[in-house]
Amino acid sequence: MTREEPLLRNIPPLLQRYGLAILSVAIALGFGLFLANYKVEGVEFPLFLFAIAVTVWYAGTWPAILALLLATAPLIISSRNLVSASISPGLTFHITQSSFSLGY
Fold it and tell me: How far is C-alpha 31 from the geometric centre of its chain's CA atoms?
C-alpha cells in the first residue's frame, strides 16, 4: 500500500507563507463584512488583529508585514466613513480587490 503525499508538499513554502497572509486577511474581511450586515459593529480591528497574529505565528515576519498592510487598507477606508454598514456589493468587490493588489 502506498502512502499519498500531502497536498501542500507540492506548493513552494514561500507561496504557502504569503498565501496564508492573504487568506487570513481575506477571511477576516469577509467575516467582518458578514457581521456588518447584521449591524454588529466594532469587530473589525480584533478580526484583523487575529489574522495578523495567526500569520506571524505560522508564517513569519515578512508575510505578517504583508498581512498588516492588507489589513490596514479596509480599516483606513472605514475610518474615513467611506464605507458604512450598508455596503453595496460593487464597493465591497473594489475594496477587496484593492486590498489584495497592495501585496503585488
Answer: 10
In the structure, how many helices (H) and strands (E) does the chain have? 4, 0
Q: Greater confidence, 80 or 83?
A: 80
Q: What is the pTM (predicted TM-score) of this model?
A: 0.68
How far is residue 92's CA from residue 33's CA, in Å, rounded to a whole number? Answer: 8
**Residue of 22, 29, 62 lying closest to 48 (CA atoms):** 29
Q: Tell me the three cell numbers of residue 81.
A: 466613513
pLDDT tens per residue across span 7-39: 767 888 899 999 999 999 999 999 988 998 898
Rounded to 5 degrees, φ, ψ at 100 are -75, -30
From the list 99, 14, 17, 16, the residue with the least C-alpha distance to 56 is: 17
- Give me 6's grid cell: 500531502
pLDDT band at residue 83 under the 50/70/90 scheme: very low
Rounded Cα gap, residues 51 and 68, in angstroms: 9
